[in-house]
Amino acid sequence: MTKMQEYMQRGEENILKTYNRFPTVLERGDGVYLFDMDDKKYLDFAAGIAVFALGYNNKEYNDALKAQIDKLIHTSNLYYNAPAIDAAAKIVETTGLSKVFFTNSGTEAIEGALKVARKYAYLKDPSKDYEFIAMNHSFHGRSQGALSVTGNAHYQDGFVPVPMRAVFADFNDLEDVRSKINDKTCGIICEVVQGEGGIYPAEKSFLEGLRALCDEHDILLIFDEIQCGMGRCGSLYAYEDYGVKPDVLTLAKALGCGVPVGAFVTAEKASHALVPGDHGTTYGGNPFAAAAVNEVYRQFESRDLVGHVKEVGQYLSEKLDELAEKYEMIRDHRGFALMQGLEFDRPVGPIVTAALEKGLIIISAGTNVLRFVPPLVIEKEHVDEMMNILTDVLDHLA
Ligand SMILES: *Cc1c(COP(=O)(O)O)cnc(C)c1O
Q1: C-alpha angle with apex 46: 44 to 47, nearest 5 degrees?
Q2: How remote is the CA of residue 107 from the centroid of ligand 1, in Å?
Q3: Dihedrals φ, ψ of 135, to 5°?
Q4: CB of residue 195 inside a 6 A radius of ligand 1
Q5: Is any ligand 1 atom within 6 A of the Cβ of residue 152?
Q6: Per-residue pLDDT tens digits for 61-107
Q7: Given 17, 51, 99, 346, which residue has the most CB atoms within 10 angstroms?
């Protein structure tokens, strides 16, 4: 047994089995490449599930974190800390929203966003048992609260009843949403581009319609940009291109580029709902995590990452169109910029496994969709390299 195989075995013996992991132990990274314990090299088109936007072993990012480690890692939220204040100000400035609460994960950002909407409604009328409208095929996280609004039955199997009431509507079907609003509805939650559900972008008219419905009923519109935000869709936040602003925005994944941090961000209108005592976190927004956020925004600006994503994303689009054209087993090509998906007429598990063997890390979104969410610093030559491997894999399958 190699050292790597031994580790995989120890992993199975000691880590709770909630994942069927791919057979490799990743050890280090450099740019858009990862290396496993056997020093096998992989081109990374997954970015740790849309997280590591800046690429691996990014010197300035590493230096910023090391400097903060030497100063102060944690304070709790009983005191102010400068990195968190700078990070919050940056998010407020770039979103045009009003206040930020930092969390340790995407799921926790969702929990906070749901609490904001419930409390907003409660302040108007405390007598009701409030509920949400969420979307079919959505994904918002694994805690019981986030599961309540996750519109994919198999995630809820074995964990019902969930603590919050939600009714599910079809994504991009405004009439369906409208028909489900009642006097108990306190918020509508949706991803701007559905990620785990299979890479489905919202239509502009749908988001505009949700905005109008929420204004009409004075309920909160929550956009979950945990996956599609932070430049991935070709604007810093995906909603910008739609011209529709949420009342609450959730961020995570690429926000800290690997340091676990998320946030929910409230518009002016929703910023009074939570008051001291209503919500808290021990770690959330600690100086270490906040230093990561600050460095991420700094590099987004200094390297014009959003501009880069638009350019290379367009190239990826063209290449995937060609692929969809060439192979009959590809049924659909969806998404844009560096959040794209190819839907196959079959489960993509074997494609993902074969690609891994050939040195390409790529992931699925649901059963039949191959998901392309590479580090945002990816170049056209890497797209070509990915295409060569993938074509090879598909030729063997066809
Ligand atoms: C990943 C994801 C979450 C959950 O985030 P975690 O950090 O895994 O808790 C929520 N919403 C969306 C859209 C996501 O992609």
Answers
A1: 80
A2: 6
A3: -105, 145
A4: yes
A5: no
A6: 999 999 999 999 999 999 999 999 999 999 999 999 999 999 999 99
A7: 51
